[in-house]
From TrEMBL:
<protein>
    <recommendedName>
        <fullName>PTS EIIA type-4 domain-containing protein</fullName>
    </recommendedName>
</protein>
<keyword id="KW-0808">Transferase</keyword>
<keyword id="KW-0963">Cytoplasm</keyword>
<feature type="domain" description="PTS EIIA type-4">
    <location>
        <begin position="1"/>
        <end position="123"/>
    </location>
</feature>
<dbReference type="GO" id="GO:0009401">
    <property type="term" value="P:phosphoenolpyruvate-dependent sugar phosphotransferase system"/>
</dbReference>
<dbReference type="InterPro" id="IPR051471">
    <property type="entry name" value="Bacterial_PTS_sugar_comp"/>
</dbReference>
<dbReference type="Pfam" id="PF03610">
    <property type="entry name" value="EIIA-man"/>
</dbReference>
<keyword id="KW-0762">Sugar transport</keyword>
<keyword id="KW-0813">Transport</keyword>
<keyword id="KW-0598">Phosphotransferase system</keyword>
<dbReference type="InterPro" id="IPR033887">
    <property type="entry name" value="PTS_IIA_man"/>
</dbReference>
<dbReference type="GO" id="GO:0016301">
    <property type="term" value="F:kinase activity"/>
</dbReference>
<dbReference type="InterPro" id="IPR036662">
    <property type="entry name" value="PTS_EIIA_man-typ_sf"/>
</dbReference>
<dbReference type="InterPro" id="IPR004701">
    <property type="entry name" value="PTS_EIIA_man-typ"/>
</dbReference>
<dbReference type="GO" id="GO:0016020">
    <property type="term" value="C:membrane"/>
</dbReference>
<keyword id="KW-0418">Kinase</keyword>
<dbReference type="GO" id="GO:0005737">
    <property type="term" value="C:cytoplasm"/>
</dbReference>
Amino acid sequence: MVGILLVSHGAFGESLIHCASHVLGKRPLYLRQLGVTIHDDPEAILPVAVDLIRFLDQGQGVLVLTDIYGATPSNIASRILVPGRVEGIAGVNLPMLIRALTYRDSPLATVIEKALSGGVEGVTRMPLPVNA
C-alpha cells in the first residue's frame, strides 16, 4: 500500500482527509497531513516530515501531495522526495486525493498517474440547467 502525506497550508490537509474519510466511509490507513503555518520554521518542520515519511512507507513508497507549487509547504515537500520511493504532486484537490486513495494498492507510478488524472478530471465546468 502506498502511503500518502499531505503537506499544506494550515488545516487544509486535515480538511481534505476529513472530506475523503466522509466520501470513503472511513479514515484511510497510512494517510497523514502536515499543516504549515506562517509561524512555522521550515527547518523545524522538515524532521517532522521525514518522520512521517518513515511511518507511511510500508514498502510501496509514499506519495506527497501539496497545495500550491512554490509555496512553503511544497518547498518543504520537495526536500523529502526520493525518485521512485517518495514522489510528489502539487495542486492537490479532493478528486485527486480520492483517486490516489482508490488506487494506492497499485505501484507508486500508477498511483501518481491516477492521482494526476483525478485532479485534472475533477475540475470541470458544471452544465447549466436546461431551463436556464
